[in-house]
Write a structure and sequence with these properties.
SH3 type barrels; 10 strands; 2 domains; 5 helices; elongated; alpha+beta
Length: 227
């Protein structure tokens, strides 16, 4: 599981919901997936072996992981043939690394891809709710479930749409279930409602790993109260 800090809101994080982002960078991954799926599988495996062999490490850097690939790794030659560009070969490695950490149950934080950064960096975190809010007890009857993997691009909760009179039906503390969108079927607790003219956003507390995280920006009409 991967999160990135929301730069405009200190202490608020965005949980990534797409295993293979729809960005131009990941075109390289898509081409390799079509032309050399076994290579991707083996790159994933060598990453997994290295990370799991060092359970106490709290920071994982792509540059370090690449340097630790065994010299006799059987798929090294195939990886080198992916492109004449060393930068592209490393980029493909980082894209496989993204899918690996996306698949893990533990939460890791990255600000990649940041301008000026050389290599992706993932930091293991003890999952904590937003610093701006204190966690409440687990909502009675609510079942926190990890977000579904979808084909949508990496991003925060969807932008709110006109609420058409639904606002008065919800309040902070309500237990809700998602009835639309990527989180359909997931239960959580409303911690905040924000109105921008006719549009209303809900911040919903979801169980991620072993703790709750407040995720802002869900359209109120995507939610239904749990009685």
């Amino acid at each position: 599981m991967i999160r990135v800090p929301v730069k405009t809101k200190k202490g608020v994080y965005r949980i990534m919901r797409t295993r293979m982002p729809r960005t131009r960078t990941f075109d390289l991954y898509r081409k390799a997936e079509a032309a050399a799926p076994e290579l991707l599988k083996q790159m994933y495996a060598v990453i997994s072996w290295d990370v799991e062999a060092r359970p106490k490490e709290t920071v994982h850097r792509s540059t370090v992981l690449i340097d630790r690939i065994p010299s006799d790794w059987p798929y090294r030659k195939q990886w080198l043939k992916v492109s004449d560009s060393e930068a592209q070969r490393r980029s493909l490695f980082e894209q496989v690394l993204w899918t690996y950490f996306f698949d893990r149950q533990e939460l890791l934080e990255t600000t990649w891809p940041d301008k000026g950064r050389t290599g992706a960096e993932y930091v293991r975190v003890g999952v904590k709710p937003s610093k701006a809010r204190k966690p409440s007890p687990r909502p009675k009857g609510a079942r926190g479930i990890a977000p579904k993997v979808t084909s949508r691009g990496v991003g925060p909760a969807p932008t709110a749409r006109p609420a058409t009179g639904l606002t008065e039906k919800f309040k902070s503390g309500d237990i809700v279930i998602f009835i639309n969108g990527d989180y359909e079927g997931v239960k959580g607790q409303i911690t905040e409602l924000e109105s921008d003219g006719p549009c209303v956003n809900a911040t919903v507390r979801l169980l991620v790993g072993a703790e709750y995280v407040d995720i802002p920006g869900f359209p109120i009409e995507d939610l239904a109260k749990v009685n």
